Amino acid sequence: MKTKVSIWDGNFIYVILSIIVGFLVGAILLVSAGIDPGLTYSTLFQGIFSRPKYIVYAFVYAAPYIMTGLSVAFSFKTGVFNIGAEGQFVVGSLAAVLVGIFGNFPPVIHPLICFVAAAAAGAAWGAVVGLMKIKRGINEVLSYIMFNWIAYYLSNYVVMHKGVKAQSIETTKNVKDSARTIIKGLIPVTGCTEVNAGFFIATICAILLWFVIKKTTFGYQLRAVGLSKTASEYGGISSSRIFMTSMAISGMLAGIGGAIQTLGMSGRIPQFSGQESFGFDGITVALIGGTDPIGCIFAGLFYGAMKYGGNKLTLVNAPKEIVNIIMGTIIFFIAISLLFKRIIKGVQQKKLDKAKELAEAKEA
Amino acid sequence: MDTFVNVLGLILSGMLISTPPLLLAALGSVFSEKSGVVNIGIEGMMTIGAFVGAVGAYYTHNGWIGFLLGGCAGMVLGLVHAFACVTCGADQTIAGTAINFIGPGLALFLCKAMFDNSSDTPSLPTEYKIPKLFKGVFKSGSFGYNVFGTYSAVWVSFILVAVIWFVFYKTSFGMRLRAAGEHPEACETLGIDVFKVRYACVLLSGFLAGLGGAFVTLATVSQFRPTVIVGQGFIAIAAVIFGKFTPQGAFLGCLLFGLCNGLKSVLSAMGSTVSPNILSMIPYIVTILVLILFVGAGRVPAANGKPYIKSK
């Protein structure tokens, strides 16, 4: 008998169903608060799709989330939970801005050097945590959380430092024009003044990452360590080395995300009054994307679009937090989809059993 | 000498104010983690507790009722987390991340819906907040005023450490919950209902995290604002790892953190020439250093993070 591959076996269908449930729960909440969900959702979607310019903005918004999503997804491959993408993103953007302000390079070369600096800063931020894990056995979740805050205050310190701070406003100076990643040629076409190379860079990173994980020996070792540390040690893989490398790469990805955001959007860093949460949102993107690099592109797009569209909800006096609630509900239902999977499997099994019984009865 | 004592009083007072939210949340986290359920959603539970605490006190005119309501709000999210992690066998990190979206999202959404699109709740007058102790006994600004006259809920949180230590190590429930986090299969053969134990622990963790959040809005500040919690739930989790998943260890972790916070605020108030941003790093750097130098590796409960699926 041929075994049919049902759509209920994969994860995709559960993600789609979860998204639908997320919007339903959001609608119920809106109604109970006396807000018209139809108007709210149409504002949200019109804010994303009604003009080409808006769609381009959604892509621009998505780029940093794709990067932090990749960072978290990659760390999951070795069983590490990179809750530190937040801090790595911050040091990445800080390095990019400093090189962008003080470096003297021709265009194209300048942003490249900024990206290298950001990648190095993010990688270093991740590698230190890795080092503490390997050498002293310190739980990485703890050190990641500490390093997030150290990065936060470090950034604020540098931003407010003499020579870096802009006059009269609480931000850094702008990076030089040569360091910006804005694609000027696309501005008149798209009508979006901040259209930048970020999305392309993020997509390239995602494809490279997919290749590394699926097609290289290193990727194989990563997955082996993620599945069982002891078994892979037995097979001759140094798990310490794998942990270090993967935590550094994970940090590097988040750091590049920081550079994408600062060089592409405002060209400067403000003094923070609260964590900006690009890194934490990366956890969400990684989870919606099924911790798959290619999945992260789509999840990042979805997330970026929702964030961008959510900003327009103030026009109709609907709290933009509804977007967060919808997102939370989606993740929640993705989390519990295992239960539905079990139930569906159970029903299918019962059907099969019944068919078998009937067939046997007929034969008899 | 007098100034020294007064400065010491200020440092301790800063410590006493900034420790309880972390401590309550950390105690909650210990319950959950020890029973085998990772609860990264502490942050979301604290935020909803902070909001409901402030609103509760605003309408009932009583800080203690607000405090308890905040705990209950956290417990509701605890129920959601328990349903996902225990009943559905969900990935606990994913479920916790969802809670971290839903909690703050819901708090701000409700706040805007209830208070005319404002993201802050109205400021509470002092008599609606959690009361301070020894009113009028000590001179304002003195050591006693700053230390003993602090909010009564501070001491409540410290007493809870002892109570929870007792529950963990001297009661059968404590033994069961520790066993559920180490070897759930063995528990089940001994007739312990792992599901029930884990449900109870996750609900308790939500309640305590909610109390922690409510402490912020009912003592530290006097209203709910979007930034009242940001990150404290994660610090509480860090304190639990620091304390090697024991209530007394988490207590030490929170105290260390609170002490650094107190030191930081006194230093910046005394006009230190060091940048406030550098001073703000102290608690995090000290935590890292203490870990590297003195604490070292900890052991995570064996079944932590693994969904338990009952065999038929």
Keywords:
heterodimer, A: 364 residues, mainly alpha, 2 domains, 0% strand, globular, B: 312 residues, ABC transporter involved in vitamin B12 uptake, BtuC, 12 helices
Number of domains of chain A: 2
Total count of strands of chain B: 0
Q: How is the biggest beta sheet of chain A arranged?
A: none
Quick one: CATH class of chain B?
Mainly Alpha
Please indicate the percent range of residues of chain B in DSSP E strands (runs of 2 or more).
under 5%
Helical proportion of chain A, percent range: over 70%
What would you call the structural class of chain B?
mainly alpha
**What's the helical proportion of residues of chain B?**
over 70%
Total number of helices of chain B: 12
How much beta of chain A, percentage-wise?
under 5%
The helix-strand sequence of chain B is: HHHHHHHHHHHH
Helix/strand class of chain A: mainly alpha
Could you please describe the fold and organization of this structure?
The complex is a heterodimer of chains A (364) and B (312). With 364 residues, chain A is mainly alpha-helical. Chain A has helices spanning 12-32, 37-49, 52-77, 85-102, 109-136, 140-159, 186-190, 198-215, 217-227, 229-234, 239-264, 278-288, 293-310, 321-363. Chain A is built from 14 helices and no strands. In chain A, helix 4 packs parallel to helix 6 (140-159) and helix 12 crosses helix 13. Chain B is mainly alpha-helical and 312 residues long. Chain B has helices spanning 2-34, 42-60, 63-87, 92-114, 143-147, 152-170, 172-182, 184-189, 194-220, 232-242, 247-269, 276-295. In chain B, helix 1 packs antiparallel against helix 9 (194-220), helix 1 crosses helix 10 and helix 11 (247-269) packs antiparallel against helix 12. The mean pLDDT of chain B is 89. At the A-B interface, helix 6, helix 12 and helix 14 of A face helix 3, helix 4, helix 10 and helix 12 of B.
